Amino acid sequence: MTRLGKLAAGLTVIVASLTLAGCGNDDSNDGNTAPKTIEVTFKGDTVTPNGERVEVTHGHDVTLHVTADAPGEIHVHSTPEQELEYDAGETTLTITDLDQPGVVDVESHTLDKVIVQLEVR
Amino acid sequence: MSGDSLWAHGIGGAKDLPIPPQLAIAGAVAALTVSFTVLAVAWRTPRFDESAGRPAPRLATLADSAVLRVAARVFGLAVFGWAMFAAVAGKDVLINPFFGMFYVWLWVGIVPLSLVFGPFYKAVSPVRTINLLFARLSGSDPEAGLFHYPERLGHWPAALGLYAFVWMELVFPSGTELGPLRLWFAGYVGLMLVGGALFGGRFYESADPFEVYSTLVGHLSPWGRSDDGALVVRTPLANLARVPARPGLVGVVGVMFGSTAFDSFKDSSVWLKHIQGSSVSPVLQNNLMLLAFCTAVALVFSVATASTGVHMHQRRTALPALFGHSMVPIIVGYIFAHYLSYLVEQGQLTLIQTSDPLTTGANYLGTGNLAVSYWLSYHPTLLATTKVLAVVIGHVLGVIAAHDRSVTLLPKRHQLTGQLPLLFAMVGFTVSGLYLLFAA
User: Fold this and answer.
1) How many CB pairs under 8 A join A and B?
2) Which residue of A93, B339, B366, B415 lies most exposed, with the fewest beta carbons within 10 A?
3) What's the whole-model pTM score?
4) At how many degrees (to 10) do helices B327-353 and B380-409 cross?
């Protein structure tokens, strides 16, 4: 039983340290609140950026500055989901309502590719 | 509105944030420390393999009562019928509840329900119920088939079935279109009814992927059966030691852990960039990767369990299955971490959608006006800590279960060294799992 006791004590320490480790990093990024603009270029069946991660602050809109050689559609897999359309040439799109923390895929419906993954913090 | 195309991405909107690095490291260190502490200070005589459990006659009267049994069957059949209604008569749009019932309720919901109630799917299984009704009509015994189930097959058919499920969910590009999903499910029901007719109840116990999955997880509940079938209460670890070491158990373990890890990996920026920049078909690459993940887990586990000194009469090839149960808590911890917010949030969404199976704006069940609570997602630190705790607790239980089995099986002088390879493998699984939660 003492061995089990030791184990239990060890576990308690670990649980406590985990909880502490988890509490250290709360909401520390309220400072950099500059609105984010992402340049998106469609050419043929390629898109840049190509699946990059971009950190954004929750509650702030993200602007997509799209340059494309053909019109198309972008899906934003936020909760709830958003659909944005762009024309050939230059289009400026805004992703709104990024309130919920999480990873949001911004996907080209036309190419079936993820353009960026927004890490909403 | 191109509703169905949204599904090309899979079910659900935003995904969890990666867990913070310091939490991942703390979890990994905890896993490592506990593993070697267990090895160094733990008991040297088996504690769980011999545990008979405490009889619970009152509870048994309730649990085995005809009323509860029939109620469970009616519940299972009702949910199944409703899902079929949506699948057959509903539209191929993202709000058809069949998708959520299949991918969220059935696949993930089965885990907490089995943890709380034991072998939950067995009690509600619609394929068992239909088999039972057929048997009633023809006046035969539903438990007896025409043939004996070939025991050499063990859980292999279930491992294949589980693989077919994760393939549908993670690889197949049209996995969220109604037609293919309906076909998959029809295939499942058809095979289960034929199997049940041929081999009786033993078939479901061995080969029904959802029942095998649920019953395995149910071994972590406190509810067990004694050898004569009476309901007993045991500690979850003693219950876990009762998992039968059948052929194919390692396959099931490999698919469950490997596919969950692949699901994390698939969403990582690294894999995304690679697969989108490559000229090789993404579907082919995902296919190969899923297979590689599942096979690697099964192989690493098998080699690690077999790398020990054994008694003269002990066949080394039997060891992986004899240790298979020790992976169950690790899998459950990891699945819990991976799917927690998905289950809570998409599970609620599915409940709302079930009121409108035909997408006509109806509110048949009165759940249509409920709103999803995203409370969990709005507390990312709490969510991340819970996830890491689940992984670490699962790991600790797994290591204890493996230690106890080593003490039972291995000769005295190999008990310490014989456990080491498996211990390293388990630490490897847990650290990889944490790394994927951090990196994906």
Assistant:
1) 121
2) B366
3) 0.91
4) 140
